[in-house]
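pinging the channel bc i need a second pair of eyes. not urgent but kinda urgent?? the chain im working w is below, pasted from the shared doc
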Amino acid sequence: MSGLQGQMGALSKKNALIDRPKGAGKGRRTARSQTVARYLILIIVLGYLLVPFFASLEFATRGDFDKNTKTFARSLASFASIFSYPNLIDSIIASLEIAALTVFGMLLLLVPTMVWTIVRVPRMRRVVEFLCLLPLAIPAIVLVVGIGPVYRWIGQNLGAVGGSPLTLTLIDIILVLPYSYRALDSSLRGIDTATLSDASRSLGAGWPGTILRVIVPNIRGGILSASVLAIALVLGEFTISSLLSFNTVQVVIFLLGHRDAQVAVAVSLTALFFAFALLFAIARFAPGAASRAQRVVEEPVA
């Protein structure tokens, strides 16, 4: 009896060895390697993003050198000094106005055009996409060379209006087209734009009412994303503003860096904080945000 049990035990062990998948151990090692690679990539990306941020913060808050402790004191004087530069304040206000006008002009140009293309002329969708993505292939210096005579004529013939930095809105709308188009296009693809437009038109609404009351509420997330991208690009644009001799915030920061580098870095960090706050607001209030709670419907008990 004991011999039979021994043979059965050996046979079961043999079957267990036979039934074990050949790549089981290799698969676990591969999964472990992939996990390590993911964490390594995450650490590298976070280090690439956060190290310059903390270095800038350390430099902007650096105070007088203490000989006893051989360290620098910490101070927010650089951030407080932002308001002591009138040119800097004026450039910040001008850049915010340019960003607001750029967003308004971009939405006024793209939303009706894209809706009309989808509903009436679907064959032109590729053409509109090509025209909107074309600024990505044209360097900023080439745009300045081409549009420079136009701005020269505007400055000579339109007086104070032609010499205002707000005229940069015309070229900034062109610069933000590729990014804004992608954001709006993804939202329009997520809804049945043609059916909604036809239904609204059949009920007696005109095209302005259809776009404002039917299409825009359904693509609010795409509009907010396109607006954020446009604002970020306008606030970070330097080349065109500098070559056209307009004092936007980036140009003034560059000039201020030659006089007071700490204040220039403080302004850059403030602009970065503003962008973070704006992204947080978009993530918080955009449709489909995580804060939107799901409702549980309880069925009545019979």
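so The longest strand covers residues 62-66. and The chain has 14 helices and two strands. — does that match what u expected or am i reading it wrong
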